[in-house]
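User: I'm putting together notes for a lab meeting next week and I want to include a structural view of one of the chains we've been expressing. I don't have a solved structure, so I'd like a prediction I can at least talk through. The sequence is below, exactly as it appears in our construct file.
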Amino acid sequence: MKLALHWQIAIGMLVGAIIGVSLNLLAGTRETVVATQQLPGGVSALTISDSPNHIRLAWTRDDGTTDAAVVDGTRQTPGAAATVDELARVNPEAADWLHRLGRSPARIVGEAAQKVGNLFLRLLQMVAVPLIITSLICGVTGLGDAASLGGMFLRTVLYYASTSAIAIAVGLLAVNIFRPGITGSVSPAANGPAASGHSLGDLLFEQVERMIPTNPIAAVAESNFLSIIAFTLAFSIFAVIVGGKTLAAIRSAAEAGFDVMMAMTMAIIALAPLGVLCLMLFVTATQGPAVFSSLFWYLLTVVAALMVHALIVLPLILRFVAGRDPFAYARSMSPALLTAFSSASSNGTLPLTMACVENRAGIDNKVSSFVLPLGATINMDGTALYEAVAVLFIGQLYHGAVLPLDQQLIVAFTALLASVGAAGIPHAGLVMMVVILQAVGLPVEMQGIILAVDRVLDMCRTSVNVWSDSCGCAVVASLEQRAGVIADAQAS
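Assistant: Thanks for the context. Below is the predicted structure for the 492-residue chain, given as structure tokens.
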């Protein structure tokens, strides 16, 4: 008997983690003295020490000068990069030497697995845009009138705003209870992302501008989801207004395209166990245990707050507002949640989320085709919570004390608005965090402190984002049924 998809994905994740941890422990360290014939031009000596949480490159140039580059995920080494990606930005020459001459076996296997896992993500991203366009057109034109769409839009936005605000409140409560920046011991970062130079008002206006594409075809080519959704909604609404044969033709074409895209999506989803295995292998093979111990209280705070929101708040909403069994609903959504965890991309997971919501959870396509694409773009409960906790953690480190209430309220409000503009891709929350740090006058470079563990937390918060979107489908479907707009498929 063939295992259910969610069990296949869970097994793939477990196998990837076991292989990755084993590689990390047994083959995660390599000491290399580069042979003379392999030395880069202008360098007379080069040694490379690669371990999971500490990489050091030391070299001597032909003129006798010496230099070194360090990657230290624990941030105990002043001036060190937190990750290999950061090293590639600040010292691309050293990063190239590491890649070509001194990587450990664990890093080599992990990065090879990442390439395979990224192929799976690319396949999901390949179908995401046409799936969003055809599903949105089907959903809007199937409602029959603009008034029905307006009601669904208001209910959807109300749910998203409410759950994001609750998530931030949970994060504020957790960071004030654990006080990770006061109990933790992390050295400030010397290198970090440059300040964006944008105020919150500028950021919000940029989101409005992105909603109005100057060239819809270019927006599709660049996968600008906000522009795609806005134009597709406008196109569908006016198709409903025009009505008649035009509406029937557009709806028929969209339904045919949607059927093809769903068939393609389901074929790609069959590869999910392999993709998840490779992505988990990469993370566990290249992350060392010391990086987690140095940021233990910060990790504990974020994970505890995310668990409260995902395991208590959202299930309560699901039970008492949508009238659904949270355990059964979570089981239906498990393939999407596990894929979101391993990929850290809510946009990449969107095709699988839509398939699970419709085929496993029984939500009407008229709801899912509208709620999920919108949610993957503007609903980021996990990201909003994470950003609030991370900024207050940095504030505690910087000031040596808990930030005052007015500053925390500024963080909460800014995190709520900034999360709307966060892209559904890995590490997007770090980009938006710059705005929040500037809002409360904290040094932007201190963001580098949390880079080393961001990938793991990104996986956790993305799962919460997708879980919130999925719960939103059930909530909106229930509210629509009560409003008499659509009939619930399970009640018939």
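A couple of points you could mention at the meeting. The chain has 20 helices and four strands. Residues 187-197, 485-492 have pLDDT under 50 and may be disordered.

User: Perfect, that's what I needed.
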